[in-house]
Amino acid sequence: xRKLSTVLLAGLVxxxxxxxxxxxxxxxxxxxxxxGACEADYGSVTDVTKANxxxxxxxxxxxxxxxxxxxxxVKPEIVEWPGYDQLTARIRSGEPPVISVMHEAVISDYSSxxxxxxxxxxxxxxxxxxxxxxxxxxxxxxxDGKIYAMPFDTHTWLWHINLNLFKQxxxxxxxxxxxxxxxxxxxxxxxxxxxxxxxxxxxxxTLANETAFYTRTFDTLxxxxxxxxxxxxxxxxxxxPEAKGALQLLADIYSKDLTTKNQDYAASVSSxxxxxxxxxxxxxxxxxxxxxEAKKDGALANGYAVTAFPQIYPGSPRVWADGHSWVLLKxxxxxxxxxxxxxxxxxxxxxxxxxxxxxxxxxxxxxIDSDQFKNLPHxxxxxSLAVNxxxxxxxxxxxxxxQDIEGEEVGSAMRGDKSVDQALTDAETRINELLAxxx
Length: 439
Fold this sequence. Notes:
Keywords: Periplasm, Signal, Sugar transport, Transport. Pfam families: SBP_bac_8 (PF13416). By secondary structure, this protein is of the alpha/beta class. The chain folds into two domains: 27-155 and 322-386, D-Maltodextrin-Binding Protein, domain 2, CATH 3.40.190.10; 156-320 and 393-437, 3-Layer(aba) Sandwich (D-Maltodextrin-Binding Protein, domain 2), CATH 3.40.190.10. 47% of the residues lie in helices and 13% in strands. The chain contains 20 helices and 13 strands. The strands form three sheets. Strands 7, 8, 9, 10, 11 and 13 form a six-stranded mixed β-sheet that branches. Strands 2-1-3-12-6 form a five-stranded mixed β-sheet, with helices on both faces. The protein has a two-stranded antiparallel ribbon with strand order 4-5. β4 (142-143) and β5 (146-147) form a beta hairpin. α10 packs across α19 (399-414) and α19 (399-414) runs antiparallel to α20. The chain is globular.
């Protein structure tokens, strides 16, 4: 009996040793990402269909990849949005992650300095068909004729709508759809009616501690007027009637108390879910979150709608847009590490539908055209964004720094800290000084 036990024990030791050896043989690569941390809810989830929201889905995707890959282990490194200060610091220290998430608007800042690996040949070998990329996605990751990233989504600016409050305000049609303004005059008329009927502001806005709301909304209003404010990618032009009109519109919304005030991103996200206003101007990434909220008891119960940013100027239905992507940082990688990096990117390509459940638009034509995607909630209501989502010209450098400057100045005018004219002049001057020194 003792002898048999010894043999069994020896076998178990050999088996455990073999398992450890197999695990050790897997190549580990670091992947830097934002999208939040949610290990408590999704840390062990490998069935991506059971995950919701940006954080849940990316966490489950990485878990699934690690569970299925025979050759690679992804080590996620979670950073605060947008993470570029940390990324730059790590590059300077000589210890960048292998892969990093990156907005398409930022890629040229890194690719132009030789900090990213071109991926055309790797994608061809891996079976990633770049011809299946949407036009927006392919343009977003292509710089100077080379592809520098795996596109992950196209995200853009929406109106998230509390239908229950819109009904209370008498702003729904016979089919129960929200009645949307088609001009600036209609916008103010509806906003006043909404406030009178509900006692709440028409808009919920993220006005504190970040600049994104101001820039994305202002750019959208310029696009709708066909204002070509970056006709020269090295110089912005805000000295136009269109720019003045758009900024005055935002200032009037604020001064007439038609929006919430002093809310940061987390507060405004929660405020809309709590029913504190009618329209939350924010992005595609919240569609899944609010659709789930509408299935529960609460302010959004059976009363959530979403639409592309309505066209309130007669020129164009275009809307601000950008995209998340994955880049391979230039560094001394082994053949195995590079192969593992491309394997992970191919996995994300193959699972792009799962990411599109967040509300972001897919980056593959075959998914956009599929019944599976079209049957997701609210996708028909935002289908136009696949065409009308508009990014700054790819030749414009320092786009996130531009967003910060533009947002600071637009915010100062919207809140009344500066005159509209002064804010536009200061924004133009500061941005053009930045671009004059951009490398």
